[in-house]
C-alpha cells in the first residue's frame, strides 16, 4: 500500500487536535480509523509524522567494487557495460552482471554521454603554451579567420516519430560542389566574408585576405587562424603586416581554441533548418545565417575559447 504524503498526515492530526470526530475525519480525508490511530501514536512516540523508511535488502555490490570502479572508469571511459564487467572480473576475480554494473556506475554519479574527441596528433605542450599566451591577448583586437563548407543536401538531424519507430527524412544525393564561406569573427560580431564555389585553397585564401579582409583591418589588430598550409603563405603574412597587424597561428589540431568554430556551428544549424535545395537559395541562406550572429554571440564564443578584453594599461 502506498504511504500517504506528509501534508495529508499533518492535516489529519490537526483535525484531531481541533476536535473533529473520527467519523468526520474519515469522511473528509478518506483514511481509515486505524490510520488515524497510527498517526497519533507515531507523533506521540517520535514527535513527527514522516513516513518510516521501507527496509530492504542491502546492495549486492561490495564497497571494493564502488571504490575500485572509479579508477576503472577513468582508465576506460568509452568501454561498454559488458567490457567493464570483464575488466572487473579480470582484476578482482569477482563476476558481476551488467545490471549491477550499471546500478553501481549510476550511484557513483557517472553517466554515459557523447564524448569530445581530440586528435591524437595534438601537441599538448604547444596547447598549454597557447593557453598561457591567450591570456595576454586583448579579445577586442582579435580577428579570427576560418572557412566552412555547405551544400544543398543539409537537412535537420532530428525528427519526430512514434516511440519505437525510426524517423525518416529526405535530402538530395546529387549535391554538386560545396559552397565555401571564408569569414572573420571579431569581438563586435561577424567581420568580412567571401563565398566561393568548391573548397578553399591557398589562392582563394590569399584573394580573400587581399581584396576583402586587409582593406578593413586597422593597426594593432591581431589576426588569428588555423595552422593550415593554405593559410601560411608569405603573401598573406605580408598583407596583414602591411596594415600594422600581427598574425598568429593556433596550435595544430586545436579547433577548440578558434571562436569562429562555434559561429560555423550556428551557421550549419541555420542551414539545416532552411533546407535550401538550389545553389541560389543556399547562397542566400548563408548570407542570412551570417547576419544572425550578434555581438553577444561573438563575445560569448571568445570567452568560451579563453579570450577576454584586457583592462588597464
TrEMBL record:
<dbReference type="InterPro" id="IPR047655">
    <property type="entry name" value="Transpos_IS630-like"/>
</dbReference>
<feature type="domain" description="Insertion element IS150 protein InsJ-like helix-turn-helix">
    <location>
        <begin position="9"/>
        <end position="58"/>
    </location>
</feature>
<dbReference type="Pfam" id="PF13592">
    <property type="entry name" value="HTH_33"/>
</dbReference>
<protein>
    <submittedName>
        <fullName>Resolvase helix-turn-helix domain protein</fullName>
    </submittedName>
</protein>
<dbReference type="Pfam" id="PF13518">
    <property type="entry name" value="HTH_28"/>
</dbReference>
<feature type="domain" description="Winged helix-turn helix">
    <location>
        <begin position="80"/>
        <end position="132"/>
    </location>
</feature>
<dbReference type="InterPro" id="IPR009057">
    <property type="entry name" value="Homeodomain-like_sf"/>
</dbReference>
<feature type="domain" description="Tc1-like transposase DDE">
    <location>
        <begin position="142"/>
        <end position="282"/>
    </location>
</feature>
<dbReference type="InterPro" id="IPR036397">
    <property type="entry name" value="RNaseH_sf"/>
</dbReference>
<dbReference type="InterPro" id="IPR055247">
    <property type="entry name" value="InsJ-like_HTH"/>
</dbReference>
<dbReference type="GO" id="GO:0003676">
    <property type="term" value="F:nucleic acid binding"/>
</dbReference>
<dbReference type="InterPro" id="IPR025959">
    <property type="entry name" value="Winged_HTH_dom"/>
</dbReference>
<dbReference type="Pfam" id="PF13358">
    <property type="entry name" value="DDE_3"/>
</dbReference>
<dbReference type="InterPro" id="IPR038717">
    <property type="entry name" value="Tc1-like_DDE_dom"/>
</dbReference>
Amino acid at each position: 500500500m502506498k504511504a500517504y504524503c506528509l501534508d495529508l498526515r499533518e492535516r489529519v492530526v490537526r483535525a484531531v487536535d481541533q476536535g473533529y470526530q473520527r467519523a468526520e475525519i474519515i469522511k473528509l480525508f478518506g483514511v481509515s480509523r486505524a490510520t488515524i490511530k497510527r498517526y497519533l501514536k507515531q507523533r506521540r512516540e517520535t514527535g513527527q509524522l514522516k513516513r518510516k523508511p521501507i527496509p530492504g535488502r542491502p546492495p549486492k555490490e561490495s564497497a571494493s567494487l564502488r571504490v575500485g570502479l572509479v579508477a576503472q572508469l577513468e582508465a576506460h571511459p568509452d568501454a561498454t557495460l559488458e567490457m567493464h564487467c570483464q575488466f572487473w572480473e579480470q582484476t578482482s576475480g569477482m563476476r558481476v552482471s551488467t545490471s549491477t554494473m550499471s546500478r553501481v556506475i549510476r550511484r557513483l554519479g557517472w553517466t554515459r554521454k557523447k564524448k569530445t574527441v581530440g586528435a591524437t596528433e595534438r601537441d599538448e605542450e604547444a596547447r598549454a603554451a597557447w593557453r598561457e599566451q591567450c591570456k595576454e591577448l586583448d579579445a577586442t583586437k582579435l580577428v579570427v579567420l576560418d572557412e566552412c563548407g555547405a551544400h544543398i543536401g543539409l537537412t535537420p538531424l532530428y525528427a519526430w516519430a512514434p516511440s519505437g519507430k525510426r524517423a525518416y527524412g529526405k535530402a538530395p544525393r546529387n549535391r554538386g560542389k560545396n559552397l565555401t564561406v571564408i569569414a572573420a569573427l571579431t569581438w563586435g560580431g561577424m567581420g568580412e566574408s567571401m563565398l566561393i564555389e568548391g573548397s578553399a585553397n591557398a589562392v582563394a585564401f590569399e584573394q580573400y585576405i587581399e581584396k576583402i579582409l586587409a582593406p578593413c583591418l586597422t593597426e594593432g589588430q591581431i589576426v588569428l587562424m588555423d595552422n593550415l598550409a593554405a593559410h601560411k603563405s608569405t603573401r598573406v603574412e605580408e598583407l596583414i603586416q602591411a596594415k600594422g597587424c600581427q598574425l598568429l597561428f593556433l596550435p595544430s589540431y586545436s579547433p577548440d581554441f578558434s571562436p569562429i568554430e562555434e559561429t560555423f556551428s550556428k551557421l550549419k544549424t541555420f542551414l539545416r533548418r532552411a533546407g535550401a535545395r538550389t545553389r541560389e537559395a543556399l547562397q542566400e541562406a548563408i548570407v542570412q545565417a551570417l547576419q544572425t550572429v550578434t555581438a553577444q554571440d561573438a563575445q560569448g564564443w571568445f570567452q568560451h575559447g579563453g579570450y577576454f578584453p584586457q583592462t588597464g594599461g
